[in-house]
Every structure is written in C-alpha cells, then in structure tokens.
C-alpha cells in the first residue's frame, strides 16, 4: 500500500491534494493543527468514497520542540511520500513586524519542514520509490514587497530542495517544489475585491488558480514514472510574474 502524509491537509490547497491523491489510490495521513473538525470531515468523505484505503487525521503543531517532532515521526506508519502544504504569511512592512512573528513564520514555512525531512529520511529511503514535495510560491522566485520574510522562506525551500535532491537522488527519492501563483485560499482572503480583481487582470490566463490547479501537479510528481524529475521548482502561475 502506498501511503503519503499531507502536512496542512485542511487548507484550501491541502484538501485538493488529499482528494486527488486518494483518487489515485494513495492512503493518507491528513495533518492538521487547529481545524480538527475539517480534518475529520475530510477523512470521512474520503473513506466513504475509497473504503479500501486508509485515511488518518493526525494533529501536530509546527511550533513544537525537536523532541516532539521526533516523537511525531516515530509514531507514523511507513510513508513513501511527504507533501508539505502548510504555510503562513504576514502582510506588511518588515520594519513594522514583530520579531516573534518573524521567527514563527520562518519556523513554520522553512525550519520545521527541513527538520521533518531529516527525521523522515530513514523510512523514505527504505521504499522502492519515495517522494517529497514542498509547496513553494511564485514569491520564492520573484520577491514580494510587504511579504519579504514569506518570500525568503519560499525561496529557501527551493534552494534546499535543489541541494537535498542531489544528496538522495540515487535512493529513488525525488525532491521537488510546486510554486503556485495567486490561488483562491483563506490566506488571500485579507485582500479586497478590488485588489483581487487587479491581480486577476495581471494573470495571462485571466483567473486566479483554485486548489485543483495546484494539486494536479503534485499528483504528477508522486507518480512512479516521474523518477527522473528532481531538484526542481515548478511554477504554476497562469503565466503571472515568472
């Protein structure tokens, strides 16, 4: 049985990832932090549709200490795919930012995913094939004013994936980043309708992405036949910015 863990499974993109992977025959750990009801409802929905697969909600706080991260990984059944779809941002000038919030953002978006990758590596190496996919951002390649720390974390994921992929390529473990552009998620709900329309007019395909536009490419990367693609950042932006 092929099994994946989706970190941030209750987000807009995370839910689409879970639905696409379940349709492709994957059993799933659905990670969440605070949205327990959303996670349980998604598990029930997937199990009703795919009763021969396993779907397990699992709670973890990305602000936890190293000992708790190690314990979290040790309690998992073997997985051969890991998708990091969690992420947070703060919108504003760096000079106005609280130092604690900067640390939190870097921790959730970059530091903990790297630590979890290190902890998960031994069991991923044991599989016939295994996959790691990080959810980056167009702003990792084209820095966004008022989201400078967020841009730094997403750019950091791309450089980490590029380097780490070279370390593990001979073990049938691929490491890639899917970097969305403007996506209709709760993270972007802070923007006014006028701002949303202005951004949409800048996107060549003429619309914001939805979760399925992003999850499709993650499903492709998890296919066993994708073993020659590693260390890459794939920008899924509708032609916007990059």
From TrEMBL:
GO terms for biological process: monocarboxylic acid metabolic process. The keyword Phosphoprotein does not apply. It comes from the Bacteria. Keywords: Oxidoreductase. It comes from Lactobacillus helveticus CIRM-BIA 953. Its EC number is 1.1.1.100. Signal peptide: none annotated. InterPro entries: NAD(P)-bd_dom_sf (IPR036291), Sc_DH/Rdtase_CS (IPR020904), SDR (IPR050259), SDR_fam (IPR002347). It holds the Pfam family adh_short. This is 3-oxoacyl-(Acyl-carrier protein) reductase. GO terms for molecular function: 3-oxoacyl-[acyl-carrier-protein] reductase (NADPH) activity. The keyword Acyltransferase does not apply. PANTHER family: 3-OXOACYL-(ACYL-CARRIER-PROTEIN) REDUCTASE (PTHR42879), 3-OXOACYL-[ACYL-CARRIER-PROTEIN] REDUCTASE FABG (PTHR42879:SF2). Belongs to the short-chain dehydrogenases/reductases (SDR) family.
């Amino acid at each position: 049985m092929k099994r994946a863990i989706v970190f941030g499974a209750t987000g807009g993109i995370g839910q689409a990832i879970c639905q696409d992977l379940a349709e492709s025959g994957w059993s799933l750990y659905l990670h969440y932090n605070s949205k327990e009801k959303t996670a349980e409802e998604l598990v029930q929905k997937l199990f009703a549709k795919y009763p021969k697969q396993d779907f397990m909600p699992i709670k973890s706080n990305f602000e936890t200490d190293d000992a708790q991260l190690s314990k979290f990984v040790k309690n998992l059944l073997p997985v051969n795919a890991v998708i990091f779809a969690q992420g947070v941002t703060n919108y504003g000038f760096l000079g106005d930012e609280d130092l604690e919030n900067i640390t939190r953002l870097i921790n959730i978006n970059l530091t903990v995913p790297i630590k979890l990758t290190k902890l998960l590596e031994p069991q991923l190496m044991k599989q016939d094939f295994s996959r790691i996919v990080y959810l980056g951002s167009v702003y990792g390649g084209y820095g966004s004013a008022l989201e400078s720390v967020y841009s730094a974390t997403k750019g950091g994921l791309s450089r980490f994936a590029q380097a780490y992929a070279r370390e593990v390529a001979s073990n049938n473990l691929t490491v890639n980043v899917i970097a969305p552009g403007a996506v209709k998620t709760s993270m972007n709900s802070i923007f006014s309708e006028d701002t949303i329309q202005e951004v949409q007019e800048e996107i060549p395909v003429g619309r914001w992405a939805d979760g399925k536009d992003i999850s499709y490419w993650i499903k492709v990367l998890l296919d066993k036949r994708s073993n020659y693609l590693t260390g890459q950042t794939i920008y899924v932006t509708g032609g916007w910015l990059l």
